[in-house]
Amino acid sequence: MALPFLRKKSEDNQRPKRYDGVIEAVRYDASGRIALARVHERRGLVFSDHVLLTREELIHRLKAGQVFVTGRRKPYLGNAFEVYEVVRLAGTPGQEVVISGPANGSERDHLNVPLF
What we know:
Mean pLDDT: 87
Strand content: 35-45%
Strand order of the largest sheet: 3-2-1-4-5-6
Shape: globular
Order of helices and strands: EEEHEEE
Structural class: mainly beta
């Protein structure tokens, strides 16, 4: 049985060929906003071990044009990831929410990744 946060997108043409980071897990605060995101950052041709980004850091990087996707590292393949969805900002400026997948009109952040 596949878990919803581990599903693959069938539309391969909508996934970016190059991305700056892979978000593999997230922690939300009591109001439903991202507190921390566990990310593997691209460093040239390879990816880093996981780093923790706050919501503000993630939003700053998304506004700067960096591309993040949700996914997970393939076991025993260090630099290979299963990529699921593109992470983006939705909502009005100043009240953005961080989402992956279709926009649901919610005022809460939502990424389809496991919690940590």
